[in-house]
Write a structure and sequence with these properties.
alpha+beta; 2 domains; two-stranded antiparallel ribbon; 3-stranded antiparallel sheet; 5 strands; single chain
Amino acid sequence: MRNVINLVLVAFIGMMVFICAKSILGPINFDKQKGARDKKVIARLMDIRTIQSEYRKIKGVYTNNFDTLITFVKNGKIPFMLKEGELTDDQRENGMTEKKAIAIIERAKKTGNYRTVKKEGLEKFKREITYVNVMDTLFKGKDFTPDSLRYVPFTNGSTFEMSTVVDTTKSGATLPLFEARTLYSVYLKGLDKQEVYNLIDFAKKLDRYPGLKVGDVELPNNNAGNWE
């Protein structure tokens, strides 16, 4: 009888040790797994932000369509300024600016008269805009696949939500805004349900988005991420 009681006590102690260990290690493991997923999702959101920024420079607005954004990465071109030479301190002190220098050189090209170029010492000064492929410029040397842009990492094909608006400032100027986002419940699926619920509940109590997002279509924030 005593042996039976001892076995029961040992089993009970073992169970308690397991429960205590789980209560301690569980949150630690969750934070570790969440951190790994956060890193991948944030990297993808930053890629979206980078491409949207270049898209707006060309088109004047953002797009809420991933097909359009992906096509822009694959086939689009963006301006790139080729620079050779710099203005000297003496030239700047005499009122020369890059804008003036470019105007003088462009005028010389049209007329074929380079007298002023030589007079101002601009023979080695060159500013020329060329157009380069978006993919080669933004993602050269990086492991990046355009078609993956829409998909949330660690999910079975779930896609980011993306919204755009064109706001109007007090001065009457237009202000394009965009937002890309994904919920905790989407990219943390498969992890401890209680921990995920706690994250969502905490975010809602603070009136924050319960997930990761970049940009904001309601409040201009210079396209910041909510993790920054």
